[in-house]
């Protein structure tokens, strides 16, 4: 319990520090999925710390998924982190939240339909990007989306591709809960059996 609490305090601190740096360093940080997902992460885990709860599997799974995909996209599509902000938001918080998801036993598991529910936020973000693309920072528009170079159909197809990534990652997270819960139950049975033998 103490380890979990300390870990989550560090997780929130990393997310808030990264977001704060983004506010100072980027022209319009709130338009990026990275800043949005890390802000959601910080708010959710602050609530967990205040309420002293583990967190429901569906909402916690959604928050974890958004950060994990942020890390995956950064790993494959972006250069190595060149600043503390990028290191915190693209590497540290995704890795820490994945460890939190895996290490701390789930009393309940997400439903198998949850990954489709978890698509709501990224799909909403995709619509936001499409509607505000002309107003995006030049750097982001050039790196992720330039509607003068690709068609809306291409953008939709790319969105479908990212949706598949979200779904695959979501089901991988659910699989991790089954594995970690099974390992936890096995270890608990082993301790009970050892105690009974005494």
Q: Would you kindly provide a written description of the structure presented here, covering whatever features stand out?
A:
This protein is mainly alpha-helical and 198 residues long. It has 8 helices and no strands. The chain has helices at 2-25, 33-51, 57-77, 84-103, 114-117, 120-132, 138-144, 152-197. Helix 2 (33-51) runs antiparallel to helix 3, helix 3 (57-77) packs across helix 4 and helix 6 (120-132) runs antiparallel to helix 8 (152-197). The longest helix has 46 residues, at 152-197.
Number of DSSP helices?
8
Biggest sheet record: none
Shape: globular
Structural class determined from secondary elements? mainly alpha
What percentage of residues falls in helices of 4 or more residues? Answer: over 70%
Quick check: average pLDDT?
A: 84
Uncertain regions: pLDDT < 50 for 5+ in a row? 138-143
Number of separate strands: 0
Strand content: under 5%
| Through-space gap between termini | 27 Å
SSE arrangement, N to C: HHHHHHHH
Tell me the radius of gyration: 19 Å
Tags for this model:
globular; mainly alpha; 8 helices; 198 residues
Give a concise summary.
The protein has helices at about 1-25, 35-50, 55-75, 85-105, 115, 120-130, 140-145, 150-195.
Topology overview:
Elements: H1 2-25, H2 33-51, H3 57-77, H4 84-103, H5 114-117, H6 120-132, H7 138-144, H8 152-197
Helix pairs in contact: 1-2, 1-4, 2-3, 3-4, 3-8, 6-8
């Amino acid at each position: 319990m103490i380890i979990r609490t300390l870990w989550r305090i560090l997780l929130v601190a990393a997310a808030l520090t990264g977001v704060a740096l983004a506010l100072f360093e980027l022209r319009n940080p709130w338009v990026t999925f990275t800043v949005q997902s890390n802000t959601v992460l910080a708010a959710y885990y602050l609530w967990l710390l205040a309420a002293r709860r583990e967190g429901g599997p569906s909402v916690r799974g959604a928050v974890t998924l958004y950060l994990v995909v942020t890390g995956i996209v950064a790993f494959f599509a972006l250069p190595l982190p060149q600043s503390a902000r990028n290191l915190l938001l693209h590497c540290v918080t995704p890795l820490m939240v994945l460890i939190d998801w895996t290490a701390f036993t789930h009393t309940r598991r997400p439903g198998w339909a949850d990954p489709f529910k978890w698509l709501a936020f990224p799909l909403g973000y995709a619509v936001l990007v499409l509607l505000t693309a002309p107003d995006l920072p030049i750097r982001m528009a050039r790196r992720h989306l330039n509607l003068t170079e690709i068609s809306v159909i291409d953008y939709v197809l790319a969105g479908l591709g990212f949706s598949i990534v979200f779904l695959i990652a979501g089901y991988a997270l659910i699989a991790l809960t089954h594995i970690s819960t099974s390992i936890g139950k096995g270890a608990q049975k082993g301790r009970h059996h050892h105690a009974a033998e005494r």
